[in-house]
Amino acid sequence: MSELLNALKGLPPQKAKKHYVTIQGKQYQVSLHKRLEIMRNGEANYMIKPTKSGPEIVPKPRPKSKVQYPVLKKANKGYVFQDGDIHWPTAVVEGGEAWLIEQE
């Protein structure tokens, strides 16, 4: 048993594993945690942001949605719904509810 322990003590120390990612055509060394995050989200979704301390890998900003959805609001002229069910309008009246797009 002591021979086995002596053999294990004689082994060279293990090298620390290095992890690399390719962002915008260049390779960067990162931690394992950061590499797994980038692999999960895709390398195309990250960019390099220059800082005073050096380049930093950050997620690309997400594009804002330009779609506006209508909301049911009181209007001068609008619908009356049967039993409050928006799928069954019964009449168009003054002061009813209408589908309007909210202005920001």
Question: What does it look like?
Answer:
This protein has 104 residues and is an alpha+beta fold. The protein folds into two domains: 2-59, no CATH class; 70-101, no CATH class. 17% of the residues lie in helices and 43% in strands. The strands form three sheets. Strands 6-5-7 form a three-stranded antiparallel beta sheet, with no helix packed on it. Strands 1-2 form a two-stranded antiparallel ribbon. It has a two-stranded antiparallel sheet with strand order 3-4. It is elongated and about 95 Å long. 3% of the residues are buried. The model has no long low-confidence stretch (mean pLDDT 90).
Overall average residue pLDDT: 90
Give start-end ranges of low-pLDDT stretches: none
**Beta-strand percent range:** 35-45%
Q: Helical segment tally?
A: 2
Morphology call: elongated
What is the rounded distance between the termini? 77 Å
How helical, in percent, are the residues? 10-25%
Our Rg estimate from Cα atoms comes to: 31 Å
Largest sheet: 3 strands, antiparallel
| Order of strands in the sheet with most strands | 6-5-7
Tally of extended strands? Answer: 7
Tally of structural domains:
2
Structural class computed from helices and strand pairing: alpha+beta
Order of helix and strand elements from N to C terminus: HEEHEEEEE
Overview features:
single chain, 104 residues, alpha+beta, 3-stranded antiparallel β-sheet, two-stranded antiparallel sheet, 2 helices, elongated
